[in-house]
Every structure is written in C-alpha cells, then in structure tokens.
Amino acid sequence: MSQQRKASTDQLRLAGCRSVHLYERLNRIAEGSYGIVYRARDRQTGQIVALKRLKLDQETQGFPITTLREIQALLIAKHPHIVDVKEIVVGDTLTSIYLVMEYVEHDLKTLLEEMPSPFLQSEVKTLLLQLLQGVALLHDHWIIHRDLKTSNLLMTNRGTIKIADFGLARKYGSPLGHMTQMVVTLWYRAPELLLGAKEYSTAIDMWSIGCIFAELLEKVPLFQGRGEIDQLHQIFKLLGTPSERVWPGYSKLPHTQTFNFAVYPPSNLRQRFMHLTNHGLDLLTRLLTYDPKQRITAEEALNHPYFQENPPPKDPSMFPTWPSKSSGEKVRLIHSPVLPQADHAEVQVDFSPAS
C-alpha cells in the first residue's frame, strides 16, 4: 500500500475528520465514474444527507486528482445554487473517504426524461438564471466546472437548482495554460475541445449551458453525437460550418487540419426553436457562439433582456413537486456517451475547516 495514500488519509484524520459511522446509510441513489452516492441519516440529528463515497480503490499514488479537485472546488465555492458540502468523513480503511453533502431530491436529467411535457417558459428562465448564478460564482473564483450537464444539476422540490459533481473542475490562471481536451461529456462539449484546442477558458462551461438551455426547452439533448466527429457534424448541421470569418483561428485547430467537414449553411436555430422569443433565441445563439472569445459570459447572460421580458421567471416556491425516486431503492447509474478523464496536474487542497 503506497505511503502517499496513507499520508493522505492520515492528513484527513489529523484535520479532525469524523467517522462515517456517525451516518446511517439508507439506500444507494446514484453511481457515476467518480463515486457512489448514498442517501443517509445523521445518527445524532436525524438529518437526511447525501453521502458520496469517493472512488480511490484503483489509485496507487494517493488521492486521485479528480477527488482532490472536487474537494477543493466545493470547499471554495459556497453558493445557494452549488451543492453544499457539510464535511469530509472517513471510514475504517484507507480507501474509505466520503463527502457529506446536502440531500437534494432530483437530478434534472431524470426529471426531463419523466416529465410528460417540457418546463414552462417561466420555469426555464428560473432554472437557467439559477444555473448562471452558480456558474458565475465559480468563474469569479477562477474555477471551470468542465462537466456541466443535466445529470450534474440537482433540483429540490422547491424549484432550486444545485450544481454538483466537481470531479473534473479545475482552477485556472491567467494566462491560460495547456489543459486536457478530454473533459465535458460529449453531448455538452464545446467545439474548440472537439477540435483539439489545448488552451480553453470558462467559455467551455457557457457552451454547455447553451446545450442545457436547449434541453430545458425540448426535453431532449440538443446534440447527441455517437462520437466526436459525429458530434461536430451535428453541431455544424444546426449552426453552420464555421470559418475564419466567424471564428478566427478555426483553421489552425488540430482537428480542423485533419478532417474534411461538410459545408453547411449558417444557423438553423430559428427553424428549430420556432416558439422561442427573439430575446431567447439571441441568448441561445450567444451561448452557442463558435468563437470562445465572443461567447457570452455568465455575468453577461444574467443581464440579458430574455430574463426581463414576459413571462417573468417563476418564483421557485411555485414550481410543481415530483415524487423523489432517490428515497426508494432504485439506483441511478450515471452513463456518459464518452467518459472524459481529468488531467493530472498537481493540486493542493486545504483540508482545514472553513472559517
């Protein structure tokens, strides 16, 4: 067993982490690439929480980078629309590390699949505003989420969105350094990543938000490529094939020089979203802008006139409620079309309690 892993676990214990046995596991509610989530009860207070066991069993060099980044991002990013981490607890073995998080009843992907009809326009505005507020906080703290998608957005029965799963999140600096392109689940991945860009920014999160916006309107993912090339073809077919005129630097991207893409005419978004207002279409278009430097930011999007026109955003307390399947025995398996892997840059995490 590696000395690094032992040191990492000892570091947690020395930081005052409590035992996982203070929580009673009720049922397993989700399993993804970076951990298993249980619904659990605090034995002292009776409070229901989400208990995420971090996957460490295949690591030989201490904590996996995804674990360190997730803990780091969640300790930094405190916001009403980001899932709250209450504490880190440890089990009996060196591979038993858990995040204790607030329990949230639903994930947006499952809700969209099971709802008989799409969200109302007023509800879409509320959910999109909340998502943008949470992402704006992340970007203000120099954090890129790098895996925004509907299955990573939790939703309470009071109509409140919580951004979750920070396993791919990364702090970035200025100037931007090289980072892996293998981030963001395929259907929500920005074209600069698909085309092999080694430098990217918060704009990749904004592209994902554009895909989520469209999914809220239609109940189905906007682009459902079978692989990276097919994903690009679907994007180009809807938005038009990019050029140097609309995206300076496009022709120099690695995969642009490797593949010959079909030439599609400019954007078909209006034909696809016929019932969306002009302001709504403008916001969607600016989120799905090819040139990352011209793509709208979270702060800019929050002030977009789409949110000021009628109908106004619905009060979250007026949202309908749905039965929570996570309180039963059904396990939600999180499948990605193509599983992204985090890169392996060094991360330093402060495990001391937040002041």
TrEMBL record:
InterPro entries (alphabetical): CDK, CDK11/PITSLRE_STKc, Kinase-like_dom_sf, Prot_kinase_dom, Ser/Thr_kinase_AS
Region ranges (Disordered): 305-326
Domain Protein kinase: 23-307
One biological process term in Gene Ontology: regulation of mitotic cell cycle
Keyword tags: ATP-binding, Kinase, Nucleotide-binding, Phosphoprotein, Serine/threonine-protein kinase, Transferase
Cross-referenced SMART domains: S_TKc
EC numbers, comma separated: 2.7.11.22
Protein name in UniProt: Cyclin-dependent kinase 11B
Cellular component per GO, a single term: nucleus
GO MF term (any one): cyclin-dependent protein serine/threonine kinase activity
CDD domains: STKc_CDC2L1 (cd07843)
Source species of the chain: Dispira parvispora
SUPFAM superfamilies linked to this entry: Protein kinase-like (PK-like) (SSF56112)
Family from the record: Belongs to the protein kinase superfamily. CMGC Ser/Thr protein kinase family. CDC2/CDKX subfamily.
